[in-house]
Amino acid sequence: MADKASAEKASADKVVIRPVGADERAVWEPLWNGYLAFYKATLAPGASDVAWQRFHDSSEPMFLLGAYVEGKLTGIVHYLYHRSSWTPGNYCYLQDLFVADSARGLGLGRALIEAVYEKAKADGCSRVYWLTQTSNAQARILYDQVADVSGFMQYRKLF
Predict the structure, then answer these.
(1) What is the DSSP string of 21-55?
(2) Number of domains in the chain
(3) Among 113, 124, 139, 155, which residue has the least CB neighbours within 10 Å?
(4) Which pTM does this prediction carry?
(5) What is the pLDDT along the chain (159 residues), one digit of tens a residue?
(6) Which DSSP string do the residues of 79-122 spell out, in sequence order?
């Protein structure tokens, strides 16, 4: 047990959280596809292309950070800012978070969430929030440690 913990700590020490560059789509896409597969989601044709463009357009309020372990992209988080009628500061919606199976247990999910917190706070946002399926028990263990459950339910109509 101690050896595994030591190995995880050593790997976690080599984690870098930074924006994913416009030239890194080939390493982002497998993680994005893994996230979509996890949620059994199918996107409209071209949706990933549009998202990728928005992440790298400075006039868009959408952002992409990556968790790099020993230089390899192993986790991603997408987030965006939007206005609110409740506060002068924007809200930050943490839309997508995914860590490769091979890197689970290294603290990358927490590191990515904390990085979004830092960015949102620095940019004057008044809150960070996200959604997850109630059945996503493993992720909810982490989420319960880093945020509060709002008690709200999501309703939606798709077009």
Answers:
(1) PTT-HHHHHHHHHHHHHHTT--PPTTHHHHHHHHH
(2) 1
(3) 155
(4) 0.89
(5) 444 444 445 455 689 999 999 999 999 999 999 999 999 999 999 999 999 999 999 999 999 999 999 999 999 999 999 999 999 999 999 999 999 999 998 999 999 999 999 999 999 999 999 999 989 898 999 999 999 999 888 898 888
(6) EEEE--SS-SSPEEEEEEEEE-GGGTTSSHHHHHHHHHHHHHHH
